[in-house]
Amino acid sequence: MSGSDLVFSGMLEQYGAVRMPHTEAMVDAAYLLQQAPRPAGNRVGLVSISGAVGVQMADTAAQVGLDVPALPSDAQAALKAINPYAATRNPIDVTAQAFNNLNLVRDNLDVVLRQDGLDALIAFFTVTAGSKSIAPRLSQILSPLPQQYPDKPMLLCIVADQATVAQYEAAGFAVFEDQHRAVSALGVLARLRPTPAMPLAMADFSAATKALRRHDGTEYSGKQVLAALGIPVPAGGVATDSGRAVGIALEVGLPVAVKIHSATILHKSDIGGVMLNLATPDAVATAASAMLDRLSDAVLVEKMAPAAAEVILGFQHDAELGPITMIGLGGVQAEIYQDVACRLAPVSAAEAQRALHSLRGRRMFEGFRGLPAADLPALAAMIERLSLFFAAHADEIESLEINPVRVLAPGQGAIACDAVLLNR
Question: What is the H or E stretch that residue 248 is in?
Answer without folding.
Answer: helix 242-252
